[in-house]
Structures are given as structure tokens and as C-alpha cells.
Design brief:
heterodimer, A: 107 residues, mainly beta, Archaeosine Trna-guanine Transglycosylase, Chain: A, domain 4, four-stranded antiparallel sheet, three-stranded antiparallel sheet, 1 helix, 9 strands, B: 390 residues, alpha/beta, Rossmann fold, 2 domains, seven-stranded parallel sheet, four-stranded parallel sheet, 14 strands, globular
């Protein structure tokens, strides 16, 4: 195992990678290994340690996949290299606000 | 086979500590409890703001959790203090329940003995004799099958699901292979991890129980009509890179490793089943509450993964805090026990990190103090409640 700048947990399925560096800045090109192949991804924003970057093009409404499983859905189109976080994805579980809307109640 | 050394209790359980517990039955005994515990060498005070004016189901939960803590094998003797008389949370009913463990329990009613000063004197004297008896006990050999491990995490970040949590999973697997058990809790923080958890369930019935109980918790959250964002993930989780509750859950669920999940138990209930494996306990995600419930379930020690760094420690259950984040270790090492940042630096494997946790656990079980125990950091105490104050 070597130190990686970006780590994809499930290389077959995930559409995001986790940044494991304090130095990932806008316009840097970072290596991301997926299924033995090293992608070169140009990041379009400063991305803090532990945050996610898109490694596949994602459309609004698409499922965000990490650990090979859903971690929520995109609320905007997200291009490869974009910072993926609370500004462009949302959870689907425990959403009392969505449940209330479905019931049509004014909460 | 690994051995550890602990204190044998009358019911056969083995404690990693030998505490005299000074226990408030209700909020209005707290000051007397504090005075007594301040006087007695090594005594642990348990104070709280409950035990009165709660719905009956919540009163029962308070009762179960307080009695569960007192029955935890880390406790050798108990002095309970109440101020008048409540349902459930009183010296008689609690004393009767705790005495089922066979350990000595004394009760002091503040009103009956003539007020707060007299109660302090009576309880202090009782605690003195109990502490002297406890001091004569010696640690004796025990094996891992006599150990129940608590699993928890908090102030989580992205590193956790990749490093500390799966490393703890390897440690938990090793404990289970050697005949021990572990408890995973925090049900709202399992929302989204059902597929992972049910794949470990010992039977289709238990898989269904896992799904049903997580769904039942989620229903209570939905009934608030509120957006979970703002509460979960928490502010520190978001700074640490976790964007959604599902992402947090999938990382958190890695703590229980690959061992079979044997059963789902209710909040604060003892884990009576001796079958080696993982037990899920249906608690809130609130760290102080979940670790207190796990202690009430009988765990003698806990490993708490915290990518962001934490102060939390349960008063009666040694809480070993580990992090996989080098920055957090530097910032928070006064209250953290193991630096596992070597995993993400490529220096150690998850399995090797699991062994480091295991070795630390065995030492702590046999008497090594955690940093928080030395500092008397006891912020990890909370009692869950479902309903209103009435």
C-alpha cells in the first residue's frame, strides 16, 4: 500500500474519490487509480482533506456511489474534477422534510 | 490464547475495573452524590437530570440504564441515593434490581436520614467500608470469551470509514474468533448501511429485525417533519468531508467487521446471549447516550474511533480513542490513545492496525489506564429518552 492523494473505495462502482492530502488546489492534476488504470483528473476547486472529487460525469438526480453503495443523490450536474459535498449532493434517508412534503402537510 | 486479568464478580462476570459507584436515583440527589464521591478514593459519581416527571416508558429506560451501569462488571459495589420516593428510580427498586448481580448495594434516602448533610455522612461512611472491601480484591486470569467489547465512533470524518473503523472491525473479528462478543449501536447512523449489515446477519430473521428496527427509528425521525441535514451529519462530520447520513453510516458500520450479527437488543438491555459474535443495540447516535447504553449492556471496555478527535469517555467503561487522521492526532492527542494514521500513510495494513487496537485493549482490560481515565474525563455520559418531560 502506498500513500494516495485520492482513494476510490470500490473501484468498480464508485463515482467519487476521497482526497487524502492537505494540498489539493484548483487546477491541479491529480492521479486517481481505478481498476489498475491511473486517471489524471484536473480538479476545478480547492478540495480539503477528506472531501470528495467526482471521477465520473454525474447528472442531477444521479446516485452518488461510495463503498459501492448509495450515499445520496446529486442535486446538480457534477463534472469530473468537481468538489462533491453538501452543496451538490443530498441524503435521501431520514428526510422528514421530504416525508412531510409527500403528505402535503404544511410543516 | 490471550489472557487478561480482571475482577471476578459474584455472578461470574469479570470486570476490568473495580469501582465503587455512587449513584443518583434522581436529579435531586446529585449534590449529595458529588460530595460523597469527592470524599471517597476512586469512587465514580453518576449524576443526571432524570428520574422524575418522565413518561413511564422513559422512567423505565432511565431505571434500566442506571441499573445496567451498576450491574456492569467494572463496578464492584454501589451506593444509591434518592431524595424522597419516585416510581422505578428509587433506592428500593433499583437496589433490588442491582442486587440480582450479587454485588453489595446500599441505599440512602436523604429525607429519611435527616437531610443532605446527614445523607452525605451516612453514604460516605458506607462507601468507605465498601471501598476498603474492594481494595482487598486481586485481579485474576480471564480469557477473551469473558469480554464484551463496545464499538462506537464520533466526530467522524472521511478517514474513519477508510482506516480506523475497518481496523476496529478486524479487532472485533479477532475478539469474536477467540470467543468474545461486541456491541454496535447508534441506529440512526446505520441508515443506509442495511445491505452491508444484513449480509452479516446470522439468519434471515435477524436480517429482517435489523431492517425493521432501523426503519422504525427512521420513522420517528420522519415524523418530526424536519430535514435531517443540520443534525446529521453533524457540523464536525461535514468539515471532515462526510456529506450525507448514508455516507456516515456506511463508514460507521465497518466497526463490526465481518463477524456474524447474532441479535438486535433494546436500548440499555444486558447482552445475556453468550454466543460469540456481534450484537446490535438500538440506541440513538448521540455519542454520550450510545456509549452509556453500551456500558449498561455490560461492556467492560470500548474502542471509540474518531477521525476528527474527541474528548469523550464513559465514566465506568474505559474508552480507548483511536484515530486514522494524523492532523487530529496532533491536535487532540491529550485525550486520544492510539494513532492509526499509518494506515493511510501506507505504513501499516488494516489488519496490523486491528492488532494494535487488540493489544491496547488487552492491556487496558488488565489495568492500564486510558488518558481520559487519568484525566478524569467523564463527558461520555447520557441517558436516552424518547418522550416529553411531564
Amino acid at each position: 500500500m502506498t500513500t494516495k492523494i485520492a482513494w476510490v473505495v470500490d473501484e468498480a462502482k464508485d463515482n467519487v474519490a476521497n482526497i487524502l492530502s492537505n494540498d489539493v488546489k484548483k487546477d491541479m492534476v491529480i492521479p486517481v487509480t481505478v481498476k489498475g488504470e491511473e486517471l489524471q483528473i484536473k480538479v476545478s476547486a480547492d478540495i480539503p482533506y477528506g472531501h470528495k472529487v467526482a471521477i465520473k460525469p454525474i447528472k442531477a438526480g444521479d446516485t452518488i456511489i461510495k463503498y459501492g453503495l448509495s450515499i445520496g443523490r446529486a442535486i446538480a450536474d457534477i463534472a469530473v474534477g468537481e468538489h462533491v459535498h453538501i452543496h451538490n449532493i443530498e441524503p435521501l434517508r431520514g428526510r422528514g422534510d421530504l416525508a412531510a412534503k409527500e403528505k402535503g402537510c404544511v410543516c | 490464547m490471550t489472557k487478561w486479568y480482571g475482577y471476578y464478580r459474584p455472578d461470574g462476570q469479570v470486570g476490568a475495573r473495580n469501582y465503587c459507584l455512587i449513584l443518583s436515583a434522581t436529579v435531586y440527589a446529585n449534590s449529595v452524590v458529588e460530595r460523597v464521591a469527592n470524599t471517597i478514593e476512586g469512587a465514580i459519581p453518576i449524576t443526571h437530570d432524570l428520574g422524575r416527571c418522565q413518561t413511564v416508558s422513559d422512567l423505565k429506560l432511565t431505571f434500566d440504564i442506571l441499573c445496567g451501569l451498576a450491574k456492569n462488571p467494572n463496578v464492584g459495589a454501589v451506593v444509591i441515593i434518592d431524595h424522597f420516593r419516585e416510581a422505578y428510580c428509587n433506592i428500593d427498586e433499583m437496589g433490588e434490581e442491582i442486587a440480582k448481580s450479587g454485588k453489595p448495594v446500599y441505599g440512602v434516602n436523604i429525607r429519611e436520614v435527616g437531610g443532605a448533610i446527614e445523607a452525605t455522612a451516612v453514604a460516605t461512611r458506607q462507601a468507605m467500608y465498601l471501598t476498603q472491601e474492594l481494595s482487598k480484591m486481586k485481579r485474576e486470569e480471564a480469557d477473551i470469551s469473558q469480554f464484551l467489547l463496545g464499538l462506537n465512533c464520533g466526530t467522524s470524518d472521511t478517514t474513519q470509514g477508510l482506516s480506523a473503523n475497518p481496523a476496529l472491525g478486524f479487532c472485533s473479528d479477532r475478539i469474536v474468533r477467540e470467543g468474545g462478543r461486541s456491541i454496535l449501536a447508534e441506529f440512526p447512523e446505520l441508515m443506509g448501511a442495511e445491505e452491508w449489515l444484513t449480509s452479516k446477519a446470522v439468519s434471515p430473521q435477524i436480517a429482517q429485525k435489523i431492517v425493521d428496527e432501523i426503519a422504525s427509528y427512521e420513522q420517528k425521525i420522519l415524523a418530526t417533519g424536519e430535514d435531517i441535514r443540520g443534525s446529521q451529519p453533524t457540523g464536525d462530520n461535514i468539515v471532515g468531508g462526510l456529506s450525507t447520513i448514508e455516507e456516515k453510516s456506511l463508514g460507521g458500520a465497518k466497526k463490526s467487521g465481518s463477524a456474524p450479527i447474532i441479535d438486535v437488543i433494546s436500548n440499555g438491555q444486558p447482552v445475556l446471549n453468550k454466543t460469540p459474535g456481534v450484537y446490535l443495540m438500538n440506541t440513538p447516535g448521540h455519542g454520550a447516550e450510545s456509549i452509556t447504553s453500551i456500558a449498561a449492556g455490560g461492556a467492560q471496555a470500548m474502542v471509540f474511533c474518531t477521525g476528527g478527535g474527541h474528548t469523550i469517555a464513559q465514566p465506568i467503561m474505559p474508552t480507548i480513542k483511536v484515530t486514522g487522521n494524523a492532523n487530529s492526532w496532533r491536535q487532540m492527542k491529550d485525550t486520544m490513545d492510539l494513532d492509526l494514521s499509518g494506515i493511510l500513510a501506507g505504513e501499516i495494513t488494516l489488519e496490523q492496525a486491528g492488532d494494535l487496537i487488540y493489544n491496547e485493549l488487552v492491556e487496558v482490560l488488565s489495568g492500564k489506564l486510558t488518558k481520559c481515565e487519568i484525566l478524569k474525563e467523564r463527558s461520555g455520559f447520557g441517558i436516552s429518552r424518547a418522550g416529553l418531560s411531564i
